[in-house]
Amino acid sequence: VLGFSFSLPVFFLQMTKSVTNPEELGGLASQMTSDYGHLALQGRMAAATAEPEEIGFQIKTRVQELGHGCIFLVQKAGALQICPTDSYTKRELIECARAVTEKVSLVLSALQAGNKGTQACITAASAVSGIIADLDTTIMFATAGTLNAENNESFADHR
């Protein structure tokens, strides 16, 4: 899913530059269609597993809205290929590309909202791993006898 988001700024730049080279629009539209198909599949899985359920609905809705924006963008790209000198169609294409960019950011924000629990678990696991590493280091030094006991007890008594 994130691969789509990282390729989007490059795509938007290519799409707006292609206003002056309309023959490039067909390939860009084809690539966008392929990327969206991948995103839709991943979005469906993300929506099905998202907690709470409202986040899943939001992911699904935003991915669908993005799909509609992509359809309009492809249509405008086709219209510009038919009439490459039409300045009105050029402006519409650029507006559609901007709308698609905004919709992608909304999809990403919904995906990030659904990922908060997962990220919290990753952060907690990382913190626990750090604590375990610190304890292992302390045990190693204590076993080697390099830690000073406050009384005459041995480390083995406490271990």
Question: How are the SSEs ordered, and which strands pair?
Answer:
Layout: H1 2-17, H2 25-49, H3 53-82, H4 87-114, H5 116-144, H6 155-158
Helix pairs in contact: 1-2, 1-4, 2-3, 3-4
Structure description:
The structure is a single chain. By secondary structure, the chain is mainly alpha-helical. It has one domain (1-115): A middle domain of Talin 1 (Up-down Bundle), CATH 1.20.1420. It has six helices and no strands. The protein has helices spanning 2-17, 25-49, 53-82, 87-114, 116-144, 155-158. Helix 1 runs antiparallel to helix 2 (25-49), helix 2 (25-49) runs antiparallel to helix 3 and helix 3 (53-82) packs antiparallel against helix 4. It is elongated. The model is unreliable at 1-6 (pLDDT under 50).
What is the compact description of this entry?
The protein has 159 residues and is mostly helical. The protein contains six helices and no strands.
The sequence of SSEs as H and E is HHHHHH
Using only CA atoms, what is the Rg?
27 Å
**Gross morphology:** elongated
CATH homologous superfamily - what is it?
Talin, central domain
Mean pLDDT: 76
- Biggest sheet descriptor: none
Quaternary structure: single chain
CATH topology title: A middle domain of Talin 1
The total tally of domains equals 1
Beta-strand portion reads under 5%
CATH class, anyone? Mainly Alpha
CATH-scheme architecture: Up-down Bundle
Q: Provide the low-confidence segments as ranges.
A: 1-6
The helix count comes to: 6
Number of beta strands: 0
Assign a percent range to the helix content.
over 70%
Structural class: mainly alpha
**Span between termini:** 48 Å
